[in-house]
Structures are given as structure tokens and as C-alpha cells.
Amino acid sequence: MRNAAVVGIGQTHHVSKRLDLNMAGMVREAAQRALADAQLTFNDIDAVVIGSAPDLFEGVALPEQWLAGALGAYGKPILRIHTMGSVGGCTAISAFYHVASGVFDKVLTVAFEKQSEAQTTWVFSAGSGGRSFSSGAGGAFAPVARFYIDRWKVPLEMGPRVAVKDRGNAMRNPYAHWKKGAVTLEDVMNSPMLWDPFRYLESCPTSDGAAAMVFAAEDIAPKIHRKPVWVKSAVAMTESLTMSMGMKALPPAAVACAKRAYADAGITNPRKELQMAEIYTPFSWIEFILYEGLGFCDEGQGWRLLEEGVTEFGGSFPVDPSGGVISTNPIGASGMLRMLEAALQVRGDAEGGHQVPDVRQALGHAYGGTINYHAVMIFSDTKP
Amino acid sequence: MRRVAVVAVAQTKFQRRRPDLMPAQMVYGVCKEVVAKAGIDRSEIDFTAAGSADYLEGRPFSFGQALRYEGAWPPINETHLEMDGGWAAYYAWIRLVTGKYDTALVTSWNKSSEASIHHVMNIALDPFYESAIGAGPIPLAALQARAYMNRTGVTSEHLAKVAVKNRRNALKNPYAQVKKDSTVQEALSSPMLSDPLHVADCPPISDGAVAIILAAEGKAERLCSRPAWVTGVHHASDSGIIGFRDLAEVPAVRAAAQGAYKMAGISDPLRDLDVAEVCETFSHQELMLYEGLGFCGPGEGGKLLDSGMTEAGGELAVNPSGGCLAADPIMCRSLVRLGEAALQVMGQAEERQVPGAKRALAHGTYGECLQGNIVWILEAD
Prior knowledge:
Chain A is built from 14 helices and eleven strands. Chain A has helices spanning 23-38, 64-67, 87-100, 120-126, 136-152, 158-170, 185-190, 221-224, 252-265, 270-273, 286-293, 302-307, 324-327, 331-347, and strands at 4-11, 47-51, 78-81, 106-114, 193-195, 198-199, 208-217, 229-238, 276-278, 361-368, 373-380. Chain A is globular. The model of chain B has no long low-confidence stretch (mean pLDDT 97). Chain B is an alpha/beta fold. At the A-B interface, helix 2, strand 3, helix 3, helix 4 and strand 8 of A face strand 3, helix 4, strand 8 and helix 10 of B.
């Protein structure tokens, strides 16, 4: 397998409603920004891989058919991934393998969601499991969080503290949806309870937005971008929806995914060998479960990483300096935003003051479904 | 490039309705069967790719229900594509070509009996201009058929002949749904659905599932005595906005075919290929595919059909399985064609086997009027 690197990165400014653009215009805006970053045009691209979550979010079925034109794919291959919330991650991974296989040299990948086109909680409730009680996404994850709290006897302000961290971080990210300023622990605790234990400020918004990346083969990547970001790992793991976790608040697919990703990257101590991570936390408490699943700490210790300030913006291992999914959630794009933000950190190009100093290696993670779909990419400033 | 082959194929019998199974449940049988046919344990599968469409199943995230039937426990390396399974196979092929993995399971399923195909495919169109006029697969195919007939002089009799040929071929395919020995006259007297397309020119509505195993060199030879090696593959999309296209032409079919032929070193497909399985979702499309795939020159699709060369016993048998006119499980149609072409090369096509088939073409499609196209070349050693 040959190496491939990220040579172009672009995203839209994420908002509640992009009334100025339709879906096609929105994906094209992100694609054009990634191409401009790579100083390439649509004509230079060999293949396109796109991703979005359920088509019911926009009411356009199989949108790759309509969007092929907006993404410059006439006469070219276009592939559409859909793995629930992890789709943005799996889409970037697919684009990476398109290049790593040697089949294509330059691949554009775009992930998006325009959630203002439909009612997100209705769509979630129409899916598996929650049809009869309108649970929405928060309702699906609340029991897991509750189980985690009970199992490890975690102080109840720890979940809200994730929201304080992420919404504060979002203030330094000019692309983030959340613009209302940093929040205090009191603000979060006083916000309405939506799905116990998730309060309003502990829950992700619904956003309109798109993310795009360009991957290029190892021989041409350094000619395209002054600082190609190399991919050391690209792993997606899935388990059955209903078996997820059993009686543990530790997702087996996350554990398996991280294990493979670290093996591919030659990493034995992630918190030492990585300088930061962007992980998929749409609801506060899930953050700690992911710290543990991704091997940042031992089981039951995730919440202590935040309590000790390790994962704060100024900490020794910042997590979600972009503000994360709690601050910005165009669902189909959210997974790719994690990958893209990790790559930006390695490149040293995170704008607006959310750059972590001296990032040489970073991890991007996305999950989907009942925390049963996981995707991990590890980016490095050094060619593997 | 690393060599990858299809080593096993399983499909359900396609039928108008499968009331006994939920959509995702249909993959259980084919996944189990294909793994058994390859003679492996499911733990030996390095990558799984699935293809399906939420809207055809009437709910979001529908594919999640299939995971348990794909064997996703303990966690597996898996990706779902919201596309025809033929493209899931393409992604699996990409993964195997990297050299990182040796074996992949690809599956897709379709239960469009539960959906209104017209309404689902209507909302796949450009939402501002084309969805709004109520367009859907049959009327759009009719516009394409008329444009093609006007350009080439192909007649309604030619269309009827394709339908008669494919459904007669289907008599030998135990998995096909619509099979009959009929006449051109009978096809022409079937009701007109959307001028110039008669009922006989249109595909049936089909429920079913399909699964294949892909394996890389080193492994493939151990799993199959005569693997169907992928020697060429490429795919390409045309505009999804119908109004932007010249419907009498199929540039994306040409682009996909040229890519696959270049990789496989094919210069004269009519002579170099022994058999082709193509997605003629409407009868006229088979003739357009003859042209697009380079089996004949521009405007000569009808002539090639008349020559009998594409009949089951002809020089290049096209759709010995009966094609999409005999069974059209929408999200599986391209993967079924790949499976059928592989069975031909593997010498496992039973009664529909083209004697001595060594090199086969499989064509898949998505969207309306042959928008997206994939072409595979499979060869025996």
C-alpha cells in the first residue's frame, strides 16, 4: 500500500440555516475551499467520494446522483458512503484508500448535512429502536450515559463540564456553529433537561454545513501542498446495533478500532505520541466513554482526565479544541470535521486561536448509530 | 496492481414480494451461503461492504438492521454505501488492491415491494425543476427511448426483441422472476405504459438479496478452483439533472467502459469478450449499452441485435441470466450482474452457462437513464 496525504482542506461556516445556498451550492462551497487550499481545480480530480447521514434529513433520496454536477464529477467516479453518524469519518477513510490503493492519484471527498431541510429528531425517531417513543438521538444515548455515571459513581457536574470546555473552545474556531460565547458550569446546569442526564447546553445543535478534503498520492503530495499531512492510520470498525456494549459502558468497536489504528501507526502510548485529538462527542457524557474506548486512559478513568484539566485547551492532551460536535453538528459532515480539524492541527493551520502548539501527530475519531460504528484516522507531519 | 477475484456468489430467488422477511433479514441467507461456498469461516473476512437505500425501505438507518445478519459481532471492518451493491463491490475491490486485506464480503438487498419506486426515485431527482414535475423512472426512460429511436432508427420491434430474448434466457435461470417464451408480437401488444415503452419493455418489481466474496491473489486460488479475476474496472457518472443531458447518448457508459478496457487491455470487445451481463433497466437501454460498451458502432445497436450475435448461443451472449427485465432488485441489480458474470467465468452458471466462457463483462447502473455506470472485466486464468 502506498502512502497518501491530505493536501487540501475546506469547510463552510456552520450555521442553523443556510438560506443563501441549496445542498448543491453548500457542498460545492466546501469543495471549492478544499481545492483552493490545494491550488487545484475540479479538472485535476480523479474521483469523488461523498458522505451524508440519512437522506431523510434533506428529503432528497440518493443525493449523489443530483450532486455529481456540483462536485465536478461528470464522467468521473463518484461514491457515496453512509454509516450513520460516523459517515464523515468513513468517507474520508474511503477517499484515503482510493489513493493508497494506487488506483487514483487525487481524490476529492466531501461530507455534508443540511439539517434545516427537515426535522432531525423526527428522523432519528423514525429509525430503529425509537419509532414508538420519539426518543431522538439524545434518547438513544442517555441510558448509556446514565449507566456510566452509576457504574463509576461520577460527580454529576462532570458531564456539564464537557459542555463548558467545548463551547468555550468553539469561541476560538471561526467556523463553529456555536457563537453565543463561553458558558459557565452554572449556565449548563440551569439549562433545560432534555434527555436526562443531557441538558440543552450538553446537546449538539442541528447545523447546515459541509466539509471537504483532498487526498493525494505520496509522490505528488509534496508538490501540491507546502505541508502535506500524512495518514498513518485509517480504520473503521462496526458491530451489531443491538449488541453494542452489553453491560459495559465501553464500546467494543471503539476499542477494536483504536487498537488497529495504533498498531498501524506504531503507537503504544497515545497520550504521549499524539499531541491532541478531535473526537465525536454529540452529547456531554459520551466524551468520557470515548476517552476510555480510544485508550486515552483506563476504564472508569475518563472523567478524571477532564477533572484534572488534561483535555482542556491548555492541557497536556487537548480534546476537541475546535469546539467539537457539541458546538457544531451538520451530522454527515461532523465525522469529517473531526478528521479535518486533526489534520489542520498537524499542519499548524487551525485558525482563530484554536491551534494547539507543536502538534506532530493527531487523532480524528467519529462514531455513529448506537455507538456501534467507529472511524479513526491518525495524521502525522512525517511520512510513514 | 494486485490481482483480486470473485470466488463465490450467492443470491436469493428474486420475487415480486417477500412478505416473510424484513428488508435486512434477506441478507442472512445469502451471507451464510456465500461464506459456506467459499469454504471459509466468517472470521477470515477482512472487510465487509454493504449497499442499500433507506428510502426504499421507508425508514432512516435501515441498513443498521442488517449488521447482525452480516455477522458484525465481534466488531468487524465494515462500511455501508447508500448505493447499489455494485459500488460496494468496487469499494471492497479498492480495499483489497491496497494489499492490506485478503478477503472481502459484499452484500446488498432490496425490498422495493414495500416502496413506491416512482415516488422514491422522483425525490432523487433535482428537487427544484425535475422532481417538481413528477418525473420518475418510467417516463424518463420513455423520453430516452424516444430520443434514441429518433437518432438511430431503432424501432419498437427492436425493443420488443430485447424483452423477448432476455425473458427467454431467464427460463434457464432459477433465480429470475419473469421468464417466458413469448413473441415480439405479444410484447408489442402488452399495454403501453409510457410511449414508446410497453409493459414488456419495463422491469419487474423485485425483492431479494445477493452476496459475493472477493479475494486477493494468494488467497483466491485456495478458495476457488477457477476464480473470476478482475482484470479491469472503472465507473463514471453522468449529470443527475436530466435536462442537462442528451438522452440519446451515454457518455458515462463510454467513460466507464474505456477505463475498464484500458486496464484489461481490450481493444475489440465484441471479439474479446465471451459473455456480458448488463443492466438494461428498460429494453432500449440494452441497445444503447451495445453502443456505449463498444460492441457495435454508433447507431448500430438494432443491427447487432438483429444479427443474433447477442443471443444466448451467439458470439457475445448478452444477459444469459435474463438481465434486469427478468428481475430488478434495484439496489442489488449491479451486484447481481457482477455475480452472474463471475459465475460464467467460474463455470458455475448451470443451465445458463455460456460454454467455455473465459472473459466476461459486467455492467451496473444507478440513477435515471443510465446516469451512473460501472464496468467490470472478469477473466479466468
